Fold:
Amino acid sequence: MTHLIAPSILSADFANLQAACEMLNNSNADWYHIDVMDGVFVPNLTLGMPIIKAIKKHSQKPFDVHLMIVAPEKFIAAFADAGANLLTVHYEACTHLHRTIQQIKAAGMKAGVALNPHTNINVLEDIIQDIDLVLIMSVNPGFGGQSFIENTYHKVKSLKELIIRKKSTALIEIDGGVTTDNARKLIDCGADVLVAGSFIFKSENPKNIIHQLKSV
Ligand code: DX5
Ligand code: ZN
Structure:
């Protein structure tokens, strides 16, 4: 499988999300990456269900929703209803991760687990066969536009080994500081999905940057 590109709309112009949707629909983007923050799990607030519902009407690609919130299990049905296709929760935010994953699947979505930069991939040993995706944070979650953490390469390789050893089908997604400078190396280490926010939306030609990330 060739790698997938999931532009993060966090860096798009929030006053003109319809234009961002049209650009993404006409680009090589595979998914929409949507960052939901609650000001508690991370020191920032972003968007919630009403915005997701509103942009769903203008989008033609799957919604990859990244929840950076405490107690995400409270909102599983609401995000399914808003249009999420893949719902990713943070390992660090879930006391009963296994149950939460089952609830996400029962609601008709694919289920992902995100790891903060300090969290070792070994914590996934007993859940990796149950999940569709692992999101490795390559910056500390909360903001777009931060610098990529180099230890990520090592984590991706270890995670790939775990996935192979456990015969899991989980995809590996990288989120934070992704550019054309690190994309190829991430894919070579085992990454399947690359999220990019500021590198795409702060550029002169976002569509062309998406094409470049898809072509590395
Ligand atoms: C950060 C978010 C990311 C963010 C990535 O907490 O999870 O998805 O939008 O932005 P860049 O690509 O600018 O690092
Ligand atoms: Zn994200």
Q: What stands out?
A: The CA atoms of residues 2 and 172 lie 13 Å apart. Residues 8, 10-11, 33, 35, 66, 139, 141-142, 144-146, 175-178, 195-199 surround D-xylitol-5-phosphate (ligand 1) (CB under 6 Å). The longest strand covers residues 32-37.
